[in-house]
Model the fold of this input.
Amino acid sequence: MWAVEALALLGARDVLIEYLQAPGRAVDAQLQFAEDAVRNTAGRGLRAWRDNQTFEILLDLCRRRNLPGIVETLAGFERAEAIPCLDRALEDDMCRKAAEDGFRKLGPIARSALLLSAVTPLPNTEEETPSSVCRRRSVLGLLTEIGVERQNWADLRPLLAERDPELLTRLAHIASSVAESRDRASAAATLVGVLGRLPWFVCKEAEEALGALAPESVPSIDAELSRRLSNPPLVRAGDEVLRMLLRLKR
Done:
């Protein structure tokens, strides 16, 4: 890694590119992990060159395999041609943050692509992979940050039929700002229905979304609150969802 950093400082772009384009060696998983660390350093070293040739080489490398260092450098060009690669990188836990930063830099330019990605489970609806779900959660979070216009809600409306709690939480946030009253109520009802399956780190986000969906969220909150209050005292004592609903009611 130090050697690669020195080559970048010496301006040896061609050497870095030759190394990155070289075919991978047959090594065990531990050595592959170490080799990837060096390749990531080489990819980051190319950020000093902002020409079209470097961009095309990075694009080609990213199409072959996602590596955080290459995704970071590619995202730094802030060019729309990189959107398909950045979208695919959202499925990789190691590359997701770099890809998200790239979409943030692109801003509204990427909105159409993100809207399409949000409603595209891969390989299909019935057999969607966990990585595809992670991508779509990330996409909805990005759309919340970048902003969705009212006319875009029609593209996202089919997601009201989803059952993933994180995805529905982010959809509810978007609905609170752009959906009509009936869809706001549907988004609230759907989210309330999955509160019991929410991961702990999404609970605050869900609470904020339901608050933002008021007054349309009130009937769903009241109904779920009544149901949970009817449970035995010991069950109520450990019910985190009940506490959330009581906070919202107040």
